[in-house]
Amino acid sequence: MRAMNISLRQRIRGLPSGFHLLMLSDALSGLAMGAGYVSISWWVVSTGGARDMAWFSTLTALVMLIALPLTAPLGDRFPKNRVIAGGILLAMLSGLALAAMAWFGFYKLAWVVASESMAMFAWSIVFPSMLSIASELVPAARLTDALSLQKSSQSVGNLIGPVVGGSLMAFMPAWLALGAYAILLAIAAVGALRIQVPPRDLADLRDESFVDQVRSGLRVRWRIPLERSWAFWGLLVMTAYLPMVVTLLPIKLHQLGLPAIWLGACEAAASGGLLIGSLWLTHRLLQHCSRPRARAFAMWALAAVFLVVALTDSPYLMLAMFGIEGMLLSITMLIGQTHRTLAVPEAYRARVSAINVLVAKLGGMLGPALAGILLASWSLDGVYLFFALFHLLTVPPMLLLPGVNRFLGLSHDEVKDWYLRQHPEAFEPIAPAAGKLKQPI
């Protein structure tokens, strides 16, 4: 623990005050999202059942899937702190709408999905900027520390939020839990507005049309072979992974006759593991082995964890497994995200980061939809085991991505703008969409 505290102080030292405010805003956002996820999921599964939960997860993921390509350029086009704050305020309105429904005892799946869709649209605005803003606040040499601390601050919020949401849902009316979610979001928005972002030259970006910025972000991912393969196999990973933590977990806990606090506890355990992993475990592991080996260890171990979760009915064992899952997830996220962020030129980072979120949300739509289909004819345990085995089968392709070990072996100075040097054609100006329409056929 003493070593962890020393390492934490060393990593915080020298980082600008704007990054400290980003950590605070991330912690508050994580707190709100953690409380909101538990409150909304438990309200849906306890009121509407497993079928409603599957539809809810699928349809809200579809909204973000559609919104992400459209909102991705906002973080490159406008100051990221304002983009983040504006998106969080929009999510707050969604929370207020859900709290009002619960207050009046009004539950209709279509209206719940519509209200949560507003939040999904809001988070599609927030996530790309939240994922890339650290690279504007700190130098490249400190980005690993910055991303680690950012994940840690998010984990602190996610550690407390589910416990708050689960406790309120277990002992208080649903409207109070959902109202608390909206209030936390309002506070997080204020924190985001206070982040001081260094000025950037945005003239060229604003001369480029919004549609062309969307197209350029998609083209960057498609024209780089490593990123294209990463996106495809990452989609399959997310299709297998997300139903196990978003859709099936609340259903399984509810069928076991457990109160909402257990869902909050599992989410908090995962966030606590993520916190330990990002603050200490990942750095210690990288002192003893290479990034590719650390990534391989984490991915195989994560697959084993979900097999245990699928096969057990013990809530205490599930709780322990989700704690381990958080630690392992931090390893895979930190190792990949730092390099992939630095490899992209700064002017493209928000829209390119959005593609990563887009892939996750496409998996978040396909996975729950498949889970809903399977639940109609299979037992819950059978469906959980199917997704655990599916997740296991995605590990070898993710470890064999073309050039991934060489890429992860680069230092932070070497990897900065690496994609631009290796694939300049991916960043060439493209013909404006409007101009193409005017060309003769």
Automatic annotation (TrEMBL):
Cross-referenced Gene3D superfamilies: MFS general substrate transporter like domains
Span of domain Major facilitator superfamily (MFS) profile: 1-406
CDD domains assigned: MFS_MefA_like (cd06173)
UniProt subcellular location: Cell membrane
InterPro entries found in the cross-reference section: MFS (IPR011701), MFS_dom (IPR020846), MFS_trans_sf (IPR036259)
Alphabetical UniProt keywords: Cell membrane, Membrane, Transmembrane, Transmembrane helix
Membrane topology: Multi-pass membrane protein
A Pfam family assignment: MFS_1
Transmembrane segments: 21-42, 54-71, 83-106, 178-197, 230-249, 261-282, 294-311, 317-336, 357-376, 382-401
Protein name (Swiss-Prot/TrEMBL): Major facilitator superfamily (MFS) profile domain-containing protein
Organism: Pseudogulbenkiania ferrooxidans EGD-HP2
